[in-house]
Amino acid sequence: MRILLVDDHRLLADALGSLIEARFPDWTVVQAASLAEALPQLDIAPDLVLLDLGLPDASGVQAVQAVRAHAPQVRIVVLSADDRPDTVRATIELGASGFVPKRADSRELVQALATMLEGRVTLPPTLLASWPRATGEPSVELTPRQLDVLRLLVDGQSNKLICRSLGLSESSVKTHLEAVYRRLGVGNRTQAVVAAARLGLTFASP
């Protein structure tokens, strides 16, 4: 598995890269200190992007927008010292599939990475605690195809990319999404990602 770590704090990035490779020997960490350095690395198709919001050439959530535009299918997990609920929600709305506060200690960080490796969603506990519970919680049953659609939605893929990935028509994807939202008791993608994190849903790779 190849991870692109985008963070301009070199000491922190080196420490985080070493921690990841020590805990997960099968993962390779490639670093970039700016958005400009990161974009060419995206062409090599990393499995995961760990993205800081405080880059010198991208302001806040603009970094998520730029990475998503350049690599629509890549999975993005945000690392940031700004873990206010509004910031976390904004990154999810723009296509991030997880968020790890920079103030997390090494144990919490390793747990968050393990959660992602297991195919689950990681979000700050403060956001999960403050977010109103969906009407479909705590018990939900999704069909295998609905789980496939939700997995790609959580990964930040657009409806068009979900169609392409699963070989479905746009109307079929919309029908599946409507069923997923109904069963989760939510009304949009952001709420679905939060519900998936709260329920601990696991998404197997296709």
Features:
Rossmann fold, 206 residues, alpha/beta, 5 strands, Arc Repressor Mutant, subunit A
Q: How would you sum up this structure in a few lines?
A:
Pfam families: GerE (PF00196), Response_reg (PF00072). With about 210 residues, the protein is an alpha/beta fold. It has helices at about 10-25, 35-40, 60-70, 85-95, 105-115, 125-130, 145-155, 160-165, 170-185, 190-200; strands spanning about 1-5, 30, 50, 75-80, 100.
Describe the protein in words.
The chain has about 210 residues and is an alpha/beta fold. It has two domains: about 1-125, Rossmann fold; about 145-200, Arc Repressor Mutant, subunit A, CATH 1.10.10. It is about 50% helix and about 10% strand. It has helices at about 10-25, 35-40, 60-70, 85-95, 105-115, 125-130, 145-155, 160-165, 170-185, 190-200; strands at about 1-5, 30, 50, 75-80, 100. The chain has a five-stranded parallel β-sheet with strand order 2-1-3-4-5, with helices on both faces. It is globular, with a radius of gyration of 16 Å. The two termini are about 15 Å apart. The mean pLDDT is about 85.
